Amino acid sequence: MKVSVLGCGRWGSFIAWYLHRIHHDVMLYGRVGSAHLQQFRETRSNGMVTFDESVQFTDSLEEAVLHGEILVISIAAQNLRSLMASLGQLDLAGKTLVLCMKGLEASTGKRLTQVVEEFTSADVAIWVGPGHVQDFTKGIPNCMVIDSKQQSVKERIVNAFGSPLIRFYYGTDLIGNEVGAAAKNVIGIAAGMLDGKGLTALKGALMSRGTREIARLIKAMGGNEITAYGLSHLGDYQATVFSEYSHNRRFGELFVQGKEYGQLAEGVPTTGALLRLAAEHGVELPICNAVDRMVNKGEDADTILSDLFLRSIKEEF
Question: Which residues are known catalytic residues?
Answer without folding.
Answer: 184
